[in-house]
Design brief:
By secondary structure, the protein is mainly beta. Helix content is 2%, strand content 42%.
């Protein structure tokens, strides 16, 4: 209180900065009421007015220390006779927040008003200057209705209005419905429909489709549309005309010029290109390893979806020139996925393994597409086709998981979840899948008891679930168990498999007594070691090296010899690394006997050194077989050396540019959202990361514009109040940000928050950058705790959403629950901040059309969106979309009563790409569980990762395709959304109408002009 008394005339200057309107200039003419809602039940003798106000500017805050006492403020319309109309309470927000918020007034009569800002502290004491509240010099004129076509970013939403559109051609459309909003950034959104018919915007005789109208200049707009049955609905050319808005017994008209502009796709972030770096600075995680005869290292980078290479002396590999002692990109990082694509332009996905034949041809396996790709070292015939050097081709697999047969063309044969590849001296390719071991013959002959034609694929083992414990049986008696991790082939074409369950297995190509003196018939299976094997390779001498699951690397000596600083007797097992502590330890140059390597990939180079991907240290390490100078280093026998790797992973690298950022798109659920401040927040791989739009202090750290920085998930703590960088989270299933920029996310069975700035949030004091649990403290599947503190409630959260007041809504199995940000009233009841309430669902009967909102029980909620004062709830159990109202109003083509649930879209059976363009009840939405978002006009966007498309449910209830062609790989930037290949994991909408999609580890923008 004493601080408030010290306020001076500067407060007046500060209040002047709170000019109502949407532009930084804060001119009186910028105070524009939003479009009127003629269908709102509460509007009788007046109209609903929505006024934009600009939040406190940072500089003003720094010069007025007393502002720290303010916890909320009101905006008041003041009539000349002293009548006051109070808007909703609004929080000032964080210190750097200069975005716009809306003050909303219901039932305001016609007349002229001045605007008053009444700032309140915790004791609800007004800021006073000369005994009166701070008052602006601006005035608002309220008429019924109100309409404007200028660029005023109100940042608010409106209801449905009746319109007529007349073009210069003189042809006028009958009355239809248009949803219009002037949103932040100056975008006019409109959805044009006509009841009972379909019309084109060009001739008005066949189709009316949803369009976005983006402001180009004052009074001029450009339009881009969506897709109906694969056809883009758009304007044929520039059109000028008028728009007439009707409501409450009067009309207002304005001019409109429309210019058709094609929507385009561009990449905003992701890809992890990071070309040309020194080995010690390269971030690696999942990296399958190869070497060639010149000691060049090839790293299959599963996180970046690339093949990278390190050349100790400098080399040109697959058309890419690598400097001395540098790591660069050879294959991947592009957008194309057709045969003949140059290596660096290829889009790769879900890489698992690689191998190289004696001619230097590179083979790469994609597990997700169940394909093997080949990159030829030279132009010529390879596996029956004339291939171009340094380009990429599909060698085997159809793109879908299927067991293959014998004597098939490999690119027409099925593969399933490829685990490992190997080549023998003749160039024959061996493919280990989840339930098959297959071979592509390079030259004709008899292999493993089968007569094979050149360039055809054959199955050696497959079709079942487990290898039997019996040894010596013919190959046809065996099946794979899904625990096999690697294969290798020696100079005599004997095959070896590593299995977590069965150990190390040998398949002789001819009768032999190798390894243990036991007679082994050709084409039978034998166990050489029973230790669980997670990796396997053969050195140039034929010694068999395998990695155990307990941090050991061991070798079965093929001949008596001295290597790795040990004397070895033929057929005996020796430890190359591992310290007996069952834990990863050791530093660069330590003896192998003191180092425990978490080995997940093994490879032997030309000198017999064993290269290991160390999963604990995120490095490529080498166990030296002999003293030598190799890879630019002098090494001693039996010691372990770091060759490549910074010790971190690409996904966890802080501070890199947007183009170098790596987001995991193949590890489960990912979420993308844009904060009110314009930052991208991404939940992925048990991390929450941010790409800030501006350099700013937020979330307890300094964020640098255009770089990725990790906020949560790098630590091991799970306690409330711990710093985000010290906190562990488990598969963040969903995430949203509230109007203050606080990040709220699902962490298994809990709903947690990362505050953007310190303050009171949801009734609790919180420190910026620390993690707090809002609700859901146990793993129970029940829903309890209504009316009590949210921190004591048990929920099973699935989806999150926020309303314009910052209240949190949680989709939880059969209901939607609310956690108020501040004390207030909603859905007809008083609500207390930090208390949890059921506001939709949870009743004792299945949800039905036109049902009281608390009576129904939803069938597995998978999406929740809050628009203005109603809900959209998507359910997996019945593949339907429901509308839940707060007040009575006209919504989705009909007058809806207050506090009821309505079925508006989804026929309960069709797939999401069926009957596009039809009314919602006749079209399929399948299960909208990948991601949803709303734009400022109330269009609901649904991402389907399995279908590769994004659809839109318009407020006329028709469903349209927005983007995607059901492809598994993306195409380049600059194309239209009808051509882009997507695998949309998550979507978010910017205030200016741009749709952002997290797909293939990239953030991609789909936008109009």
């Amino acid at each position: 209180m004493s601080r408030l008394k010290r306020m001076t005339g500067r407060v007046v200057a500060m209040a002047a900065a709170l000019v109502l309107g949407g532009l930084a200039g804060c001119q009186p003419s910028a105070i524009v009421p939003s479009l009127v809602s003629p269908g709102r039940a509460t509007v009788r003798n007046g109209v609903r007015v929505q006024v934009a106000i600009q939040r406190f500017l940072p500089k003003t805050l720094r010069t007025q220390a007393v502002i720290a006492d303010i916890v909320r403020y009101k905006v008041i319309l003041c009539k000349a006779d002293g009548t006051l109309f109070w808007g909703q309470d609004i929080r000032p927000g964080d210190l750097n927040d200069t975005t716009l918020v809306a003050a909303i007034f219901d039932t305001v009569p016609d007349g002229s008003y001045t605007v008053t800002v009444d700032a309140l502290n915790a004791a609800h004491v007004s800021i006073m200057t000369g005994g009166v509240p701070v008052r602006s010099l601006n005035q608002v004129t309220v008429t019924s209705p109100n309409v404007s076509y200028s660029d005023y970013p109100t940042g608010v939403r409106t209801d449905s209005l009746l319109v007529q559109i007349g073009l210069n051609s003189g042809v006028s459309a009958p009355a239809g419905q248009v949803l219009v909003n002037m949103a932040a950034g100056g975008t006019l959104y409109a959805t044009l429909t006509e009841p009972g018919t379909q019309r084109t915007l060009a001739s008005f005789n066949s189709l009316v489709s949803p369009f976005k109208f983006t402001s180009v200049a004052d009074g001029t707009y450009a339009a881009w549309g969506f897709f109906v049955n694969g056809t883009l609905a758009t304007l044929p050319g520039p059109s000028a005309g008028t728009v007439t808005v009707s409501g409450s017994g009067s009309t207002v008209s304005g001019s409109l010029t429309l210019t058709p502009t094609a929507a385009t796709v561009s990449t905003v972030a992701g890809g992890g290109l990071g070309d040309v770096a020194t080995p010690a600075t390269v971030d690696i995680a999942d990296a399958a390893i190869l070497t060639d005869s010149a000691d060049n290292l090839f790293l299959l980078d599963r996180d970046r979806r690339q093949v990278r290479a390190f050349s100790p002396t400098g080399a040109t590999l697959f058309g890419v020139s690598l400097p001395v002692n540098q790591v660069g990109r050879l294959v991947g990082g592009g957008y194309a996925n057709v045969d003949g694509t140059p290596a660096q332009q290829r889009s790769l996905t879900n890489l698992t393994c690689q191998t190289m034949d004696a001619a230097g041809n590179l083979f790469i396996a994609e597990s997700e597409t169940h394909r093997v790709l080949v990159v030829p070292r030279a132009t010529g015939m390879l596996f029956g086709r004339n291939l171009t050097a340094n380009a990429t081709y599909v060698l085997a697999g159809t793109g879908t998981a299927a067991n293959g047969g014998d004597d098939e063309v490999p690119w027409n044969s099925g593969l399933v979840a490829i685990r490992s590849l190997a080549c023998d001296a003749d160039g024959n390719l061996y493919i280990l899948g989840q339930n098959q071991l297959q071979m592509i013959a390079r030259v004709p002959g008899t292999y493993f008891g089968k007569s094979m034609n050149a360039d055809r694929i054959y199955t050696l083992i497959g079709g079942g679930w487990s290898l039997p414990n019996s040894e010596g049986l013919a190959l046809g008696a065996y099946t794979l168990g899904g625990t096999e991790t690697a294969i290798a082939v020696d100079a005599q074409r004997n095959l070896y498999m590593a299995s977590i369950h069965y150990g190390t297995v040998m398949i002789p190509s001819a009768a032999t007594t190798l390894w243990n003196g036991v007679n082994k018939a050709a084409n039978t299976c034998w166990r050489l070691s029973t230790e669980p094997a997670v990796g396997l390779c053969l050195d140039p001498t034929g010694n068999l090296v395998y990695a155990t699951g307990s941090n050991y690397v061991k070798m079965i000596a093929r001949v008596t010899q001295t290597c790795f600083n040990q004397f070895m007797t033929a057929n005996q097992v020796y430890t190359l690394s591992g310290n007996g502590n069952n834990s990863p330890e050791g530093s660069d140059g330590d003896p192998g006997s003191t180092v425990g390597l978490t080995a997940r990939d093994l490879h032997a180079d030309r000198l017999g050194n064993i290269l290991v991907r160390d999963a604990t240290y995120n490095r490529l390490r080498m166990i030296a077989s002999q003293a030598a100078t190799i890879y630019g280093r002098t090494v001693a026998a039996g010691r372990v050396y770091n060759l490549v790797g910074s010790g971190t992973t690409p996904i966890r690298r802080d501070g890199v540019s947007a183009a170098q950022a790596v987001f995991s798109s193949n590890r489960g659920n990912e979420a993308l959202w844009m904060t009110p401040q314009g930052d991208f927040v991404v939940a992925h791989d048990s991390l929450i990361s941010i790409l800030p739009a501006a350099t700013v202090s937020a979330y307890g750290q300094t964020l640098t514009a255009g770089t990725i920085q990790h906020l949560v998930g790098l630590g091991a703590l799970e306690t409330d109040g711990a710093a985000g960088s010290d906190t562990r989270i488990r598969n963040p299933l969903h995430m949203r940000t509230d109007l203050h920029g606080n990040i709220v996310f699902l962490d298994m069975t809990r709903v947690r928050i990362l505050p953007r700035q310190s303050g009171i949030h949801y009734g609790r004091a919180m420190v910026a950058g620390n993690v707090y649990t809002l609700t859901g403290i146990t793993s129970s599947y029940s829903n309890t705790g209504d009316g009590g503190p949210a921190t004591g409630a048990t929920v099973w959260p699935r989806r999150l959403a926020f309303d314009q007041a910052g209240n949190l809504f949680i989709g939880s199995q059969d209901r939607v629950r609310m956690l108020p940000y501040l004390d207030g009233t909603s859905y007809g009841a008083a609500r207390v901040a930090g208390t949890i309430y059921t506001v939709v669902g949870g009743g004792g009967q299945p949800v039905a059309d036109d049902q009281p909102r608390l009576d129904g029980s939803f069938a597995d909620i998978v999406s929740v969106e809050v628009y203005d004062d109603y809900f959209l709830v998507g359910c997996k159990g019945d593949a339907k979309l429901y509308l839940v109202t707060s007040g009575a109003k006209r919504l989705y083509g009909a007058l809806r009563q207050a506090n009821r649930t309505y079925h508006i879209a989804g026929d309960g059976s069709s797939t999401a790409n069926a009957n596009l363009g039809s009314l919602g009840l006749n079209a399929g939405i399948e299960s909208p569980q990948d991601s949803t978002c709303l734009d400022a006009a109330g269009n609901l966007y649904i991402a389907y990762g399995n279908l590769g498309i994004v659809t839109m449910v318009a407020p006329d209830t028709r469903i349209y395709r927005v983007a995607g062609v059901q492809a598994v790989s993306p195409v380049g930037d600059g194309v239209g959304p009808e051509a882009v290949g997507l695998q949309p994991r998550s979507i978010t909408m910017a205030p200016n109408g741009a749709l952002y999609v997290l797909s293939h580890g990239l953030i991609r923008k789909i936008a109009g002009p």
